[in-house]
Design a protein that fits this description.
Antioxidant, Horf6, Chain A, domain 2, 8 helices, Glutaredoxin, 5-stranded mixed β-sheet, alpha+beta, 4-stranded antiparallel β-sheet, binds benzoic acid
Length: about 260
Amino acid sequence: MKTIDGLPGPCSSLRCDRNGRENAGADRARRRREAGKSINEPTTEDVTVSIRLGDEAPNFTAETTEGQIDFHAWKDGSWAVLFSHPADYTPVCTTELGRTAGLQAEFAKRNVKVIAISVDSIEDHRGWTPDIRDVGGTDLNFPIIADSDRAVSGLYDMIHPGEGDTSTVRAVFVIDPANKVRATLTYPKSVGRNFAEILRVLDALQLTDAAPVSTPADWVPGQRVIVSPTMATDEARQRFGDVEEVKPYLRWTAQPTKTS
Ligand code: BEZ
C-alpha cells in the first residue's frame, strides 16, 4: 500500500478516511507538525484506501432510505451492486437511479441486490425520490445510503479530490455472494453509467464462475465464449462438444448453460 507521499503506510490493513486529502500541502504539513511527525514520517491520514478485486468488500452500518442496515447482513449471501452518485437533485444522477429502478427485475433475476450511496442527507434522499419516479417511470425500489459523514464513501475510496469537490464520483462495486469484490467501474461525474454493461458484467461473472470459460471482447449473453487456457482441447471437447481451435491458446465454444 502506498501513501500520498509514496511512503509505505504505517498499517496495511488500516482503512482510513481521506476527507482531508484535498488539503494536501500546507494543511497536511501543519497537521503533521501537530502530530509530532517529521516531514518524512507517514501519518494515518496518508494511507490511500485501495480496494482490489478479490478483496472482501468492507462491511459497514449505515442509514438508508429503507432504514439502518449492516451491509453484509443486508446482502445476506446474494450478489450486490454498490454504486455511488455525486449528489441528489442532479440530472445525470436522476436518470441513473431511475434506470436502475426500471432494471430491478433484471437484477433480481440474477440474485443481485442494488444499493446506491451519496453524501447527501436522508431528508434529501427522501425529497428527491419522487423525481426519480417521475423521470424513470418506476418507484425507487432499492435503498440509498445517506453518507453525510462520508464514512462509507471514504471506506470505499469513492471521493476523488482531483475530481473537483468532496462528493462521490460514479463508482460501482460488484460484490459476490461470499462478499468478494469481483468488478469495479469508476466514471466521472459528467458521464452517466451504462447499466446494461453492469448487467453484462454480472452475466459474465456468473457464467465464468459456473464453467471453465472466459468471455471475449464485446461479448453479450448467448454469444460464443473462450475455453479456459487451463483446460486441454480434448477435455474441452468432452465437456462442451464442438470446440474451434483458431490458435493453441484461443479455442471457441458455444456458451455453456450455467449448470453445465
Ligand atoms: C449530475 O448528476 O448531473 C451531476 C452531478 C454532479 C456533477 C455533475 C453532474
